Structure formats: C-alpha cells, structure tokens
Amino acid sequence: MAMTAVAYDLTRMSGYVVADSRGRIVGKVECPMYGTAPDAPDALSVRSGFLARRRRLVPVEAIEQIDGRSRVIGLSIEREKLQAFL
Q1: Residue 15 and residue 73: Cα distance in Å, rounded?
Q2: Residue 40 and residue 35: Cα distance in Å, rounded?
Q3: Which of 28, 36, 59, 63 places its Cα 20 to 30 Å from the Cα of 15?
C-alpha cells in the first residue's frame, strides 16, 4: 500500500489518527495550526484522548506519510519529542 504526504490539504485532516515513528498512537488531529502564513498550516493540533485537555503540536516537517484510505498520518519522530500545550 503506497502512502505519501504530497499534495494533501492539511486543512482537511481533522479526525485523522496520528502514529509516531515506532507505530504508537499519538492521538487524533483536532485542527490545523497556523503561524507564519495565514493560508498554509505550519502544524497540526493532536488530542491524545476523548477528555484530554493537553494536546500535542505536530509540525508539518515531522509528517512522513499520509494514508487517505485508512485516515492515518505517520510521523518521522517519536511522540516524546512532540511539544505539548494546553
């Protein structure tokens, strides 16, 4: 099965499951995060649980693969290296 991050609209990734480089689940994408440009997201906000208050910031550069069929985003880093925020 081929996976790629090329030509995906990151503004429509809400609900995708995010897995780190070791295959462990990080959480689900909550929304895109904008920083340097108002029209292109720099990162994704990922919530780790249903009632979890803390979220993790997944930079676009850390995204290695996106599978549109199974709605899974694969990262090139481990989840411990992701920045947590409220």
Answers
A1: 10
A2: 8
A3: 36
Going from N- to C-terminal start, the domains of the chain cover 10-85
User: What was the pLDDT predicted at 7?
Assistant: 55
- Dump pLDDT digits (tens) for 42-64: 999 999 877 777 899 999 999 99
Euclidean distance between CA atoms 51 and 13, whole angstroms: 20
- Give the pTM: 0.84
CATH of range 10-85; options 2.30.30.240, 3.30.70.1530, 1.20.1530.20, 3.40.50.10090: 2.30.30.240
pLDDT over 50 at 4, yes or no:
no
Read off the pLDDT of residues 18-31 as tens digits, 9 standing for 90 and up.
999 999 999 999 99
Length of the chain: 86
Phi, psi for residue 55 in degrees, rounded to 5? -125, 165
